[in-house]
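User: Look at the shape:
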Amino acid sequence: MAFKDLREFIAELEKRSLLSRVKKEVDWNLEVGAIMKRVFDAGGPAVVFERVKDSDVPLLSGAMGTYERYAIGIDCANDIRSILAKILDAVGKPTVPVAAARGACQENVLRGKEIDLYRFPTPHWHPLDGGRFIGTLGVVITRDPETGKRNMGIYREQILDRDKTGLLAAQHVGITLQKYRAMKRPMPIATCIGVDPAILAASCLQLPLGEDELGIAGALRGEPVELVQCKTVDLQVPASAEIVLEGSIPPDDAQWMEEGPFGEFTGYYGGDRMKRPTIYLSAVTHRDRPIYQGTFEDAPPNESAVLRTIGHTAGLWEKLKKTGVPGIKDVFLRGCASFIAVISLERQYYGGHARQVIDAVWAVAGGVKWVIVVDGDIDVFDWEQVEWALSTRVQPHRDIVISDERERGLHLDPSIPPEVRPYPINQSSRIGIDATTQFKGFAWPDPVQSTAETMAAVKARWKEYGIS
């Protein structure tokens, strides 16, 4: 089923016994983060904290924290191939959003002194965080001032004052902000908290700038996303969002404030405290009895890793399609920050084919440090099979290529030296591994395997063996 808002998704998870409610009061300061760390480590359920200290707003975390719950959220079979297939189909057939005259997200409108971000249950997630961070699942919407095209994504955002937040403006929002600054214009921006699972999934897709993620969300839902005009900035936001923060970033960095650090998805603190783009809020709108949504960032397993793995894998797949490299069978990005790309080829059509894949990934996917190319008999989603290919099909002197340190990296990668780590420098080296068997200059030994006929016969008689 398609979910029109977060509340319908919560109800479905609860119906399937995949969500727990914590009725005891919990502290937003570190306690919520520690609870969710334990929940994620145990592969536990989504959690609604009904009573968070200093707030009358409930907090949801972990709703998309497993592939099972992700699959439920976009209404598809519970396996990674099916999830990716549905995402990629939606990317290719977006459903244009529609305008709505009114939306539940604007049942309450706060301006001026009425704005107070501290009334929401935003956690202080980790001990060394610079403060309380909204931007763990806050969906940020901006518009390119040159093309007019909308962009949607999740970016780190810290509460700096009751009506101000600091933004780690990297990737697409960083490019858009540079354009506004060149024009000496403030950048309108809206952060949507508590969106339906299709919108959340689409916001994590690492697609080329200019793609409308809300159109993809509509395709995932099977119906257009309804949008309402913001009250104080020229942007449209999902009508069913629980909470919307409207504001703008001034072009003059003299008006920016210090933000960071934060415990990141790499498992390390990143983005040291420094002056960063600051959002001056002009309005906060929300539904009656709003539900806040956020998540605990850290090394996997966690909700962020699930969202990032699917979103970045689909994004890389889509980019590789446009490179013209033939024969790609499967793509999967692994690791806490999708640092490792595993790509299988149906077959190698010519010498250097595997290296061409490596070069293509380096060209289109900043932040991917490891590219592993395998034959079509290897399941890229099964790390044991990938490890077997690495162990038995690679000679390091022949099959590994390492770039210099001038490749594009990820600004939160702790292995990059601090002087070249910050965005937009973020320079890194990369490694490519050809773990295929063709065009190596000799005939490969036959792999050990039973015949198809024998395996079929065993399958037909399986119940007779009495093996449970």
